[in-house]
Design a protein that fits this description.
This protein is of the alpha+beta class. It is 36% helix and 30% strand.
Length: 208
Amino acid sequence: MSLLLYGIVEASAAITHGEEMLIQADGLSAVAVHREQIDQDLDSILAYGKVVERIYRQTTLIPMRYGNLLPDEAAVIQHLILEAERYRQRLAELEGCEEMGIRLAMPPQPAEVQTAACNGHEYLLARKRKYLALEQVEQHTAALDIALSGLYRKRCAEAGLFAGQTMYLLSYLVPRAKLQAFRETLEKRDDVEGRWVSGPWPPYNFAC
């Protein structure tokens, strides 16, 4: 039976747990549970997320995304030993922090233009629209970074689809002591249309 990983914590962390087990090596603990198979249905994914959330509220956690499997306890121990230095560094970065997300709406991206299907002018216009949308969202991002300066530890970004709409997701790693100031700063800003703020969350986007 394989082991499904929820996350990595310090071996000294005192956490309450149910069916999860703590596998220790090199000063770290992997929080895991036995699973015969991984179900990809929504209920299973949400249940997994609730366990991660519960552990995260008790201690600093490097959360794993759903589906991380290792074959047995020996493999988990080997993994902890091999990744110990990186995990300790990441735990220090995540200490006392929450993840806040900001989604910026982007105009629908034009389909890739085939030069054989249009003339040169149409092709250049399509490319211009594509890069103009990205340039605008990057300008908004830069303005947000300046406004939030000193209120977050790290930031990452990615573009993708959310509820069928093209979005630009900004993820900020925010110290809990600065969380209220972070939110208040965002509430005062009205210069970015189509903005959605979410969180705080376990720091999935800063775990790797």
